[in-house]
């Protein structure tokens, strides 16, 4: 394998196999072969940790959600924090009878996890990724139609594992919007703008997922080197955007010849990192890169990238999103939640999912913890200079290094707006 020519492959999706038993695990005989006669691939020790295994599952849901969302808006930027949406769905499953619970759990890849306490593990995961040093905030809420009588047997485990209580609407659109906005402001410490969109009058169940992140690089950028530079929307159109620069950046790098993209990883404080996927051509379709994204693929990348020194330019970003992901979730085999679910563990009245809203904010600038790279990062010796310029459409993944959780994912076609 030539230096920096890293060939990645998409690993089996959390153990998906053509031959599985009822638990979702490949069947194995005493010879160490599955029933097709193929040697069993031993699970990476990283994914044997329950929190990491759960993080991989809901991250794979997140990549699925991103792909659908991106496909529905191929010419627009995409910004998602899928964890907040997954958390709302996982919490809602506490009130679902078996048929509906199975539908939610399959979408979240829980059917591939042997864990008797999914919700307890989820509590542990949330505590880890929202620790103060991470600079990441995430919150989810279940909102029910007015005058609904909710069973206490649903509320208690919801509070225990997810630290939230359901909200019952008053029916007054102005007061309900004000209350939801106040909750979002309290959860996000005022970092996300108040919504002006009214809550629909015909809500049965509304899920709300919100998230905010402001990254701090391990090595900060020199603001004096930030300048307006060209960002190539395609081969013909360019726009001027503020670009941060570091002529001697230490980053982790690889060239994926199958996906025709250059991959770079930059470390952030709090055991976080951002992985960038930069196509070799500005006009290259991003779909093939998007289709390759799984928890296992990203984990492989994290192990294989090589530390190098490069000339780096990266746009300053301050993005926000407010909108529905209802249509996207319908595409993820969750249509029955909107039509004929069984949430009789919540209430005796027939209810169904009406709407799923997502609000998020994401930004990075020159801020960093130090002016020099970590002494533990020794770049490989290169016989040629390497440039990494994020000056054309790219995809980024914000990942929690401790658990492997996908916290944010974005498709940036034009960094001026979301």
Annotate the secondary structure layout:
Blueprint: H1 50-72, E1 78-80, H2 82-92, H3 98-107, H4 118-129, E2 136-144, H5 152-162, E3 167-168, H6 173-187, E4 205-214, E5 217-219, E6 227-232, E7 238-256, E8 261-268, E9 272-279, H7 287-292, H8 295-304, E10 306-315, E11 317-324, H9 326-339, E12 353-364, E13 368-370, E14 387-389, E15 394-400, E16 406-412
Parallel strand pairs: 2-3, 4-12, 5-13, 10-14
Antiparallel strand pairs: 1-16, 2-4, 6-7, 7-8, 7-10, 8-9, 9-15, 11-12, 15-16
Helix pairs in contact: 1-2, 1-4, 1-9, 3-9
Domain Serpin: 63-415
Region (Disordered): 19-39
Signal peptide: 1-19
What is the CATH architecture descriptor of the largest domain? 2-Layer Sandwich
Question: Main sheet?
Answer: 9 strands, mixed
Could you please say which CATH topology of the largest domain applies here?
Antithrombin, Chain I, domain 2
Whole-number count of domains? 2
Describe it for me?
The chain is of the alpha+beta class and 418 residues long. The protein folds into 2 domains: 47-215 and 319-363, Antithrombin, Chain I, domain 2, CATH 3.30.497.10; 217-316 and 366-412, Alpha-1-antitrypsin, domain 1, CATH 2.30.39.10. The protein contains 9 helices and 16 strands. Strands 1, 6, 7, 8, 9, 10, 14, 15 and 16 form a 9-stranded mixed β-sheet that branches. A 5-stranded mixed β-sheet has the order 3-2-4-12-11. A two-stranded parallel sheet has the order 5-13. Strand 15 and strand 16 form a beta hairpin. The radius of gyration is 22 Å and the shape is globular. The two termini are 39 Å apart. The model is unreliable at 1-40 (pLDDT under 50). Belongs to the serpin family.
């Amino acid at each position: 394998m030539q230096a920096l020519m890293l060939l990645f492959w998409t690993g089996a999706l959390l153990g998906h196999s053509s031959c599985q038993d009822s638990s979702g695990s490949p069947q194995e005989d005493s010879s160490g072969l599955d029933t097709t006669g193929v040697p069993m691939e031993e699970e990476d020790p990283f994914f044997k940790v329950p929190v990491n295994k759960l993080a991989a599952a809901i991250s794979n849901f997140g990549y699925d959600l991103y792909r659908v969302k991106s496909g529905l808006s191929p010419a627009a930027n995409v910004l998602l924090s899928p964890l907040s949406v997954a958390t709302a769905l996982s919490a809602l499953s506490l009130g679902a009878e078996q048929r509906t619970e199975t539908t939610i759990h399959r979408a979240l890849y829980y059917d591939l996890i042997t864990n008797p306490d999914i919700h307890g593990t989820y509590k542990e995961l949330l505590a880890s990724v929202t620790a103060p040093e991470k600079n990441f905030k995430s919150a989810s809420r279940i909102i029910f139609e007015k005058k609904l009588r909710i069973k206490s047997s649903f509320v208690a485990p919801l509070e225990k594992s997810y630290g939230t209580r359901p909200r019952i609407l008053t029916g007054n659109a102005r007061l309900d919007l004000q209350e939801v906005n106040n909750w979002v402001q309290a959860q996000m410490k005022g970092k996300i703008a108040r919504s002006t969109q009214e809550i629909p009058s015909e809500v049965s169940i509304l899920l709300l997922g919100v998230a905010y992140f402001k990254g701090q690089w391990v090595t900060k950028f020199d603001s004096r080197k930030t300048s307006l530079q060209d960002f190539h929307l395609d081969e013909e159109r360019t726009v001027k955007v503020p670009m941060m620069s570091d002529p001697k950046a230490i980053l982790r790098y690889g060239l994926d010849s199958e996906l025709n993209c250059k991959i770079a990883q930059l470390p952030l404080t709090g055991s976080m990192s951002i992985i960038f996927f930069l196509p070799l051509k500005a006009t290259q379709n991003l779909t093939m890169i998007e289709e390759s994204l799984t928890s296992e693929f990203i984990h492989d990348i994290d192990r294989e990238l090589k530390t190098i020194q490069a000339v780096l330019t990266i746009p300053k970003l301050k993005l926000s999103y407010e909108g529905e992901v209802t249509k996207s979730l319908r595409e993820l085999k969750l249509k029955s939640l909107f039509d004929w679910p069984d949430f009789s563990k919540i209430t005796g009245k027939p209810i169904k999912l009406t709407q799923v809203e997502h609000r998020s904010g994401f930004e990075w600038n020159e801020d960093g913890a130090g002016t020099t790279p970590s002494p533990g990062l020794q770049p490989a010796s290169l016989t040629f200079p390497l440039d990494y310029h994020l000056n054309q459409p790219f995809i980024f993944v914000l990942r929690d290094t401790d658990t492997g959780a996908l916290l944010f994912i974005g498709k940036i076609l034009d960094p001026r707006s979301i």
